[in-house]
Amino acid sequence: MLEVTGLSKHFGGVQALQDVTFSIAAGEVAGLIGPNGAGKTTCFNVIAGALSPSSGTVRFRGGQITGWSADRISHLGLGRTFQNIAIFPELTVWDNVYAAALTHMRSGYLAGIAGLSHVRREQRALEDRVWTTLELVGLSGDGHLMSSQLPYGHQRRLEIARALVTSPQLVLLDEPTAGMNAQETANVMDLIRMLRGEHTFLVIEHDMRVVMGICDHIIVLDNGRKIADGSPSQVQQDEGVIKAYLGGELIDEPVG
């Protein structure tokens, strides 16, 4: 599903990523972890087209996408959430998700103005998909609310809904459980488990209980370099990983 080879990104004299290589198989849940400043979000931004790499390649579904624009990559079937919540606070919950769905509408703007029958059918199908997605993430009863009225944890779920409504094959989740309580965190983990296979996931997460609970394999970055890549049990016992986490032990009791 995804192949990253020799990926590097520098900002002036700062080397945010250095020769990072990993791959993700279709249908799996992969974790991308590391201390603050390890380069995780930079890696996401390069994969998703928000940043161009300084060197290296990114292949998605077997095709080269290195340096492609974010919208072009999105239309190939890649969805993402952001470390800082990216929703429209002045729109309702329903409109936020519908706006995301519209970006993948096949009919053009002029056809929409003309009110052609096939456009109306597509719009109705999009509306149905919005309600289905809101129900999936547990927000179907909040569709009428302004998104700014939602608690922080629910805004996180809204952002996940915006990523899922376009039916992506690969979903990049940047700290999806940040700010959530234990029950909300467990619900998100259950959602990811339920959708695995239908979607492939790459997840940045600081809560090691979440990582150990949902991931098939884990990639670990430190100072922009990959220091480990393997199963949760392999990564947990890796001396370099333990050292990167300030000598502490990785939690081996998952939640959810």
Main features:
256 residues; Rossmann fold
Please provide a brief summary of the model.
This protein is of the alpha/beta class.
Structure description:
The protein is 38% helix and 23% strand. The chain has 256 residues and is an alpha/beta fold. It has one domain: 3-Layer(aba) Sandwich (Rossmann fold). The strands form two sheets. A six-stranded mixed sheet has the order 6-7-8-3-9-10, sandwiched between helices. It has a four-stranded antiparallel sheet with strand order 2-1-4-5, with helices on one face.
Could you tell me the radius of gyration in angstroms? Answer: 19 Å
For the terminal residues, how far apart are their CA atoms?
Answer: 27 Å
Class based on secondary structure composition and strand pairing: alpha/beta
- Main beta sheet, described? 6 strands, mixed
Q: What is the succession of H and E elements?
A: EEEHEEHEHHHHEHEHEEHH
Shape category: globular
Give the SSE layout.
Blueprint: E1 2-11, E2 14-24, E3 29-33, H1 40-48, E4 55-60, E5 63-64, H2 70-77, E6 78-80, H3 93-102, H4 109-114, H5 117-136, H6 152-164, E7 170-174, H7 182-195, E8 200-204, H8 208-214, E9 217-222, E10 225-230, H9 232-236, H10 239-244
Parallel strand pairs: 3-8, 3-9, 6-7, 7-8
Antiparallel strand pairs: 1-2, 1-4, 4-5, 9-10
Helix pairs in contact: 3-5, 3-6, 5-6
